[in-house]
Amino acid sequence: MAEIIVALDFPAADRALDLVNDLGEAGTFYKVGLELYTRAGPSVVEELRDRGKSVFLDLKLHDIPNTVAGGVRAASQLGVDLLTVHTAGGGPMLDAAREVAGEMRLLGVTVLTSIAPTDLEATWGRKIPSMPEEVGRLADLAARHQIHGVVVSPLEAALIRSRVEPEFLIVTPGIRPAGVGRDDQQRVATPSAAVAAGADYLVVGRAITGANDPEAALHSILAEVDLVKSDDG
Ligand code: C5P
């Protein structure tokens, strides 16, 4: 059953927590990313935990194994539920992260949803067979190193789902309900398409935080996701 994670991409804790209050019971899982964490630090994670919310700390760690392990240990001790590390950090880094994750689940970032195939070819200096194949290769690396799941765009989720164990988590940003603009994202899909492709968690930022009525936007996405579930069942 897919869940919605609301991305709290705000420059200050008070604005983030105001949104959490506005969303009430319907908002159960929140993502704290680079901007909010750099400004507000661990206290914003503690505030969310105190309100009974689950926390996805999206720090996208990518460094030498010892340094990443230190960051992972600290996040685990903070009571974070999900934390991101870059799969491109390689096997030894993923192993070091996994060893100290404790109860926290780790997600491997594959190829950012803002990256188009031509950007990736320019960055890596080679032709890529296809985006799903590139993402799949990095997801396989994460799975081999016992990382709990991956972050992929909804466009690659179906391929990944077909080749990993059912408990391997698929988390998809790049969610845009019909009629909502793409912003800086390249590989996007609607909430229902992401769920149909096998996503476990949908990360939604601006489609909720930038809406005139964020609570209504969240409810509408929850309803759309529910419809897909009942179609399946
Ligand atoms: O506003 P929007 O819904 O595009 O926000 C998506 C969120 O998901 C952002 O917080 C972004 O950092 C995050 N994310 C992403 N692509 C990834 C990993 C995380 O867009 N590969």
Task: Characterize the structure shown.
The chain is α/β, with parallel strands linked by helices. It has a single domain (3-232), classed as TIM Barrel, CATH 3.20.20.70. It is built from eleven helices and eight strands. An eight-stranded parallel beta barrel has the order 1-2-3-4-5-6-7-8, surrounded by seven helices. α4 runs parallel beside α5 and α7 crosses α8 (154-163). The chain is globular and about 45 Å long. The chain starts with a strand and ends with a helix. Residues 7, 9, 31, 33, 58, 109, 112-113, 151, 173-175, 183, 185, 203-207 line the site of cytidine-5'-monophosphate.
Number-wise, the strands total 8
CATH topology: TIM Barrel
Strand adjacency order, main sheet: 1-2-3-4-5-6-7-8
Mean pLDDT: 95
Tell me roughly what share of residues is in helical segments.
40-55%
Radius of gyration from the CA trace?
A: 17 Å
Distance between the termini: 11 Å
How would you spell out the order of helices and strands? EHEHHEHEHEHHEHEHEHH
Characteristics:
11 helices, binds cytidine-5'-monophosphate, alpha/beta, TIM Barrel, 233 residues, eight-stranded parallel β-barrel
In short:
With 233 residues, this protein is an alpha/beta fold. 47% of the residues lie in helices and 16% in strands.
